[in-house]
């Protein structure tokens, strides 16, 4: 019997059985111990499931597919951009060849990011963007005759991706560094930045940062951090004042500064880039996730002229990196369309509206039993529990409210698409509340 002869329910069950038997999911065991939900289609802010979850087949997506789907799903403008590019060419190699979508994208990124960032390396995922950022920094110091400068410094609580160099700068506990002793490069860690976007810079913490950077300046290539919002490492917010401080300290001690804006880029934290909250520019910036509006996988690593020229003066005067699908025209075309769609609207007002809706909708959870903290920054809402979340129960409880969430550790959180209307936003907040109570 072929798949097409089966009833829809049987088909779904068969597909899910194949999924459990063969398909690895993020951070999952094999074979899988919990079943995934089969998605049939998605439009606007809604995911349509093959079978109901919590009594609902349509769920409002509270996750933007992990920070990516800013404009929701199946957007006519983004669909058209992909179709138009598909009719021209879906891909050509980027060695020796170039094309308009990638050129326009790189030029646009240079235009909208802080001024000193002038050069763009396009790759295929956020982790690779971070690999490239680290490679740029290490190679810069080699090229200018300081090869001992090859360690990275970061603060705890970070997340920068799952390939090995990015893993080495993830939080040592959350990133399971004990599994990889002797394999991961040995980086330098300072404590997590003190919490609170509006908090004053803590002088004791500032002094600790200064001491660490000064003491290790001779071996430090760069400091790498997620500005303002630490995402998958714990959903924590900190003052932009620490970015200003890092910029000063790095300048003072001849250390490069990398901002990983893969999660925060394109307005999520309330500024177009989180660096804009502080008005500082890093030497290297990584973008990804929302870059293509959640349509296709692409990332960008931007760097300053000084860094690029330094690398290109070295004994190996090239940046030795070149992914097969570098600059992919489909991804670049939809990225261009997504950026224009964002910038052509009053996105600040939309993000503020979502921020306000989340603050209002989550306010009652502060002080609820089992809840340690409720925090909102830009279009990000977080409920931190005082215990590890029961993921299955929390997911089901949110689905009963008609909402898709993906809690982890002690966190129930949401970063909705910017197009989420107030009614759906209220349901998302109710979903977060239900998940927090059930989980
Ligand atoms: C998601 C993320 C990455 C990794 O991106 P992938 O595309 O998943 O490889 C790196 N840094 C930050 C801050 C992220 O949020």
TrEMBL record:
Keyword Mitochondrion carried by entry: no
HAMAP family per UniProt: BioA
Keywords for this protein: Aminotransferase, Biotin biosynthesis, Cytoplasm, Pyridoxal phosphate, S-adenosyl-L-methionine, Transferase
Pathway as given in its UniProt record: Cofactor biosynthesis; biotin biosynthesis; 7,8-diaminononanoate from 8-amino-7-oxononanoate (SAM route): step 1/1
GO cellular component, one term: cytoplasm
Domain of life (superkingdom): Bacteria
Binding residue positions for pyridoxal 5'-phosphate: 126-127, 260, 323-324
Homology family: Belongs to the class-III pyridoxal-phosphate-dependent aminotransferase family. BioA subfamily.
Protein name, per record: Adenosylmethionine-8-amino-7-oxononanoate aminotransferase
């Amino acid at each position: 019997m072929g798949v097409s002869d089966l009833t829809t329910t049987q088909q779904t069950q068969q597909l899910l059985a194949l999924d459990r038997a063969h398909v690895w999911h993020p951070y999952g065991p094999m074979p899988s111990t919990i079943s995934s939900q089969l998605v049939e289609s998605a439009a606007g802010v809604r995911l349509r499931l093959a079978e109901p979850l919590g009594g609902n087949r349509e769920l409002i997506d509270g996750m933007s597919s992990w920070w990516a789907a800013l404009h929701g799903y199946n957007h006519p403008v983004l669909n058209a951009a992909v179709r138009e590019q598909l009719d021209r060419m879906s891909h050509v190699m980027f060695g020796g060849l170039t094309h308009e979508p990638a050129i326009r994208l790189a030029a646009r990124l240079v235009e909208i990011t802080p001024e000193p960032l002038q050069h763009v390396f396009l790759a295929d995922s956020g982790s690779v963007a971070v690999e490239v950022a680290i490679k740029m920094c290490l190679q810069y110091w080699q090229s200018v005759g300081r090869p001992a400068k090859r360690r990275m410094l970061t603060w705890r609580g970070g997340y920068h991706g799952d390939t090995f160099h990015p893993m080495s700068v993830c939080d040592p506990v959350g990133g399971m560094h004990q599994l990889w002793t002797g394999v991961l490069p040995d980086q330098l860690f300072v404590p997590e930045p003190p919490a609170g976007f509006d908090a004053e810079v803590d002088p004791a913490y500032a002094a600790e940062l200064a001491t660490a950077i000064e003491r290790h300046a001779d071996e430090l290539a760069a400091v790498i951090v997620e500005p303002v919002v630490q995402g998958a490492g714990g959903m924590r917010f900190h003052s932009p004042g620490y970015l200003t401080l890092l910029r000063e300290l790095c300048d003072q001690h001849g250390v490069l500064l990398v901002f990983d804006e893969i999660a925060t880029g394109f307005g999520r934290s309330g500024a177009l880039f989180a660096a804009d909250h502080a008005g500082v520019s890093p030497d290297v910036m990584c973008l990804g996730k929302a870059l293509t509006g959640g349509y296709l996988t692409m990332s960008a690593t931007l760097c300053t002229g000084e860094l690029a020229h330094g690398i290109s003066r070295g004994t190996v005067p090239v940046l030795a990196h070149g992914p097969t699908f570098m600059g992919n025209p489909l991804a670049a075309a939809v990225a261009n369309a997504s950026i224009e769609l964002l910038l052509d609207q009053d996105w600040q007002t939309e993000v503020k509206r979502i921020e306000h809706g989340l603050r209002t909708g989550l306010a009652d959870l502060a002080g609820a039993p089992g809840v340690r903290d409720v925090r909102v920054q830009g279009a990000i809402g977080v409920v931190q529990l005082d215990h590890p979340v029961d993921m299955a129960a929390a997911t089901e409880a949110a689905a009963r409210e008609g909402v898709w969430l993906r809690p982890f550790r002690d966190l129930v959180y949401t970063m909705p698409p910017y197009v989420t209307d107030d009614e759906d936003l209220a349901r998302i907040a109710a979903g977060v509340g239900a998940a927090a109570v059930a989980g």
